[in-house]
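Session log. Operator J.P. requested a structure for one protein chain; no other inputs attached. Running the standard single-chain path with token output.
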Amino acid sequence: MTDEKNIDEPCSMCRERGKDWEGDDPECFFVNAGRNWNCATINALRDIVYEGRQEMPDGVDYRYCEDQKYATVCVADIDGLDGALALWVTWYKCRGSTDGVWLLFSDQPPRVPTEDEVRRVVNHYKP
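Structure written below.
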């Protein structure tokens, strides 16, 4: 399943949330993955995979290495992820940007997931 939204529009969760804080405006990961800030969908993913935000779900491996955080999430049993085995996400400290999110496969190169794919992972793992 492909994500059919316009690439220039923020994701649906960013649009629903809007801006509810003082400071820099949000920049959606799905508009520009390299320059994102407080994307609501990616923040929902980080809440699931970040130690201390909730009990770590089975299928999530979280690591901390000199202020860099990363997690590997098993996605092999989630429908609609095009044969992906895992989702890998990394970010620095507790800041609002996320350095990278990749779907990992056994038979093709990693790729950035769509909004729909990340939402499927979030919905699968949310408490």
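Operator note: The CA atoms of residues 72 and 88 lie 5 Å apart.
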